[in-house]
Amino acid sequence: MTFTLKKLYGKKEIRSAIEGCVTALDSPIALLDAGGAVIVGVQETNFSKYPVVVNGELIGWVCGGEKVGAIASMISCLATQEVEKKALAREVLGKYRELTLLYNISEKIIGSLDIKEVAGIVLEEAQRGIKASSGAVMLWEEGSDRLESIQTFGPAGGCFSELAATATLVNRSVETGRGEIVNDIGWELAPESGPHQPPGLASVMCVPLKTKEKVIGAIAIGNRESLGYSAEDLKLLTALASQAASAIAALAHENKLKESRRQAILFRLATQIRQSLELSTILETAVTEIRNLLRVDRCLFAWYNPAKSNIRSRESAEADERPPEPSSERSLRHHPGHFSHLTLHTSDYWQVINEAKHPALPSVIGDYATSEVGGLASKLLKMEIVRVDDVTKLTDSVMRQFFLKQDVSSILAVPIETRLGKRGFVACANSSKIRPWSDDEIELLEAVGNQLAIAIDQAQLYQQSLHSAQVAREKAEELEKTLVELQQTEAQLVQSEKMSGLGQLVAGIAHEINNPVNFIHGNLVHVNNYTLELLTVLNLYQKYYPEPVAELESAIEEMDVEFLMDDLPKLLSSMKLGTDRIRAIVQSLRLFSRVDESDMKRANIRDGIESTLMILQHRLNAQPGRLPIQLIFEDGDLPLVECYPGQLNQVFMNLMANAIDALEEAMASGQGSKSQTLPVLRIRTERVDFPEFDSDGELLENSRSPRVRITIADNGIGMTEAVRRRLFDPFFTTKAVGKGTGLGLSISYQIVVEKHRGTLECISEPDQGAEFIIELPIFQSKSQGNVSFFDRNTGMRDGKSVVHHIQNC
């Protein structure tokens, strides 16, 4: 240990503290070093010796009386503090050295864009902080398990991953992910590798290059002398390796990203050529993607146009009145919104049609005469790449002045030529600073140019195919329209034929039933009168002949004459009620069918609803294993409606029958029992008025379109959104085969919307029931007069809403 009691006593403040203690204790002392040599004072024979110990190591003695033992303890404490101060100073100095090194390397790495350059910076800093005669930065080769040196120094720099001794060390460090030190390389030598070991390589240190995900390589340094690399050296190299690994991984990722973006641009262009072949879209995408990838201030595409005369715009008539240009070769710059101005060229020119630029830069879209751009035009026409890193160094004064006028510092232009001989170019330009162009950037622009040439060649074929496709599409649309019309006509014919047959059958049955029923009903009046007369005679007979003969009395008791006299009038009354019921049903059937009403007329909507309910009455009643369906009829005050009554009855029948089907399905699935509510069919009628608007969307003054609304709702199974959207399509049905044709709602929609200029809507959600809303104009023509309302006594409405609750048992 280099720390001694003599050095400690040599410090002024410590010496003063010791002398102060000696004076205070009034006891002479002598200080001896660890070997017994006197440092200060005189050692007497009667003195006792007290050791001075620092961190368990003896550094001297204090000799004197009993009191000086405290002085020895004090000196030990002071010595320990001094040792700790020195250790802390060395640690702080090491940290400062490490931080300074890391700061310097970080600054250099940030400014580097190349992996090999980063590796060189790391090795350079390692040489400054650690003594080494050779070193290398190694990375895994792509697609192999071999480490490749990408940057080295010294005679053995390129051999760390190849020679047996160093290769063992490097492999162990990479596999374990920890740094390794060998201060005598001979320990690691394989017997057969001695002649190949680089001379003078005695000490070696290796640390892995690690990112968060994996080990990407290693840094190894060595020295020809056995220096004895320390843990501090390993720590410093590890810090450098951490910085290098992060930078190398980031640059590798950036390079892969740049390559993938390059491939992505080419892929997107090829995809657009295959999919759209819209040249304007392809060019716009190309210049935008190239600018974003290369990070340039501007990217543009231009066409070459040979000399032509009298190239005029759509406003040539106006242009004839304008004064001629001073020079026939002057370029008229076109900017967005000004392409309709006169364009008259008598020389060849370049036309910039697409650009992607920094927002602060002005647009360069427009026409430029060949003479204006100097040697740029001739080079491009010779299919030469124009690569200018610094415009100010151009020897072509015309081209230099043109670029400077356009605020261009560096430019790279790649020519293209189509199979049809049309020429153009893609160019990248920088304005903010000089930009050295790389070979990769030239390759990218050349690849984009090839893709664009393919797109231009195919554009004409694409336009021809578009025309052919348009003709075919129009024919297909016409056929599709015809098919839809045929489907609708078929549906109408099927439904019309069905309703016509049903109407004739109902009318025939009603006629056949009506004749005998009228006969019975008419004769029941006479039977009732005759019965009353006979009963009157029988009562008189009992009054005046109370004591009949035995045979007559026996017959009276056997026939229960008193019961017959009481029950016979009731029997006749019930028979009359039965015939009235039959006549009402027949009337409802005739009213529902309306086969004799083919013209539009003003009709009572309520009669159609009630006749439909009369026909469906049996389905509302309770069935075996099924609850009755509760009918709630909220009858509003409706006027006579101009309509086709028979067709509207058909609509009511379809909607009510579907509602009953939904309720029966809900009860069959147990939905009704879960909700603890009876199945309900609700019908509501009301009058609503809507404003009318002109063609400009303005409300017409004093104009209201009177309408009626009929709502038919149920609390059945409801329907999904997908089903609801297709509800009115012809032949669409969710019912089982044989239970539905898919025509009912389609025909209903046509009747309401097309025949009556009304609306038919459905509101429904699964398990929430369904509500169909019909709205009909009261008048089909605006020239109709006032609306009439029924009264209960006179046949017109009385103006009050009536709600009917019918519970079917």
From TrEMBL:
EC number from the UniProt entry: 2.7.13.3
Organism, as annotated: Laspinema palackyanum D2a
Top-level taxon in the UniProt lineage: Bacteria
Catalysed reaction, written as an equation: ATP + protein L-histidine = ADP + protein N-phospho-L-histidine
Residues covered by the Phytochrome chromophore attachment site domain: 278-451
Name of the protein: histidine kinase
Keywords noted in UniProt: Coiled coil, Kinase, Phosphoprotein, Transferase, Two-component regulatory system
Pfam family, one: GAF
